[in-house]
Amino acid sequence: MSIFNQIYQRMYQTTIPDEPVCQVCQRPIELNRQFMDIPCLCQSCAQAMQKVKKVYKIDGIHWYVLYVYTDFLERLWFQLKEQKDIVLASLFLADEDVDLRSYCVCAMPSSEQKRLNRGFEPILEVFRNTGIDVYSPLYKTANIKQSNQPKAKRQEIQDVLQLKSCYWMPNKPILLVDDVCTTGATLSKACTLLSTSKVFIISAHPLWMASQQPNEVANAPWIW
Ligand SMILES: [Zn+2]
Q1: Does residue 172 register a pLDDT over 90?
Q2: Domains, in order of start, for the chain
Q3: Which PANTHER family match (predicted)?
Q4: Which residues lie near ion ligand 1 (Cβ < 5 Å)?
Q5: In 3D, which of 223, 224, 163 has the Cα closest to residue 199?
Q6: What distance in angstroms lies between residue 169's CA and the mean position of ligand 1's atoms?
Q7: Residue 37 Cα, ligand 1 centroid: separation in angstroms?
Q8: 52: CA distance to ligand 1 center in Å?
Q9: Ligand 1 midpoint to CA 223 (Å)
Q10: Average pLDDT in the 153-166 region?
Q11: What CA–CA distance (Å, rounded) separates 45 from 24?
Q12: SS3 sequence of 63-79
């Protein structure tokens, strides 16, 4: 091959884009998926993200659940939170036309220790590309994982949630957002601290969803 041909071939190769790979499992993305709603996931990962869009009415407040917290989502959150694969945060709302301008969106907090270890707040990363301002009027005074605790201790755990004083927020109905709902206890506590209008949960545990089945609002309109 002539030197010109070699140069031409090298230049041509640099213009070919890399084969797109799934952001979760790193396997190549099937050709038929590359123009889909969530183009950065392979078929099996996209299917494993079980979107449910269920609405519950709990103590007069509407709670909106986007995904079921399956084993797949547990691994996904772990990869995002503990392995700091922050880019995964954009997956959850990637194919949604999120419009929450009429609300003051408030995030449930991680503990200070978690936030310092991670260097980011996962729920804020989920909303980063939506252009929505997310406020953090709450804080936790200790780092206790709710799901590891016996029922009797959960009241104590709820007491670690506190409201910041002198924290400015826009005067709009409050939409409380959380990444994972396991027992709902901390979210319920937050509802009492803030005059919450609605609750939006990215992923809810199937056991919690089963327990809330009597509160499910069938055919309720979605939040956006
Ligand atoms: Zn995949």
Answers
A1: yes
A2: 14-47 (no CATH), 49-215 (3.40.50)
A3: DNA UTILIZATION PROTEIN YHGH
A4: 22, 24-25, 42, 45
A5: 223
A6: 39
A7: 14
A8: 20
A9: 28
A10: 79
A11: 7
A12: EEEEEECCHHHHHHHHH
Q: Please report which residue ranges of the chain form alpha helices under DSSP H.
A: 3-15, 43-48, 71-81, 112-118, 122-127, 154-158, 185-193, 206-211
Q: What residues does 175 pair with on adjacent strands?
A: 105, 198
Q: Which two tokens stand for residue 156?
A: 């104590």
Classify residue 82 as exposed, middle or buried by CB count within 10 Å of its CB (0-12, 13-18, 19+).
exposed
Would you state the pLDDT for residue 33? 72
Q: Among candidates 125, 139, 124, 133, which has minimal Cα distance to 189?
A: 139
> Which residues are 204's β-sheet partners?
68, 181
pLDDT tens digits, 9-21: 777 666 556 788 8
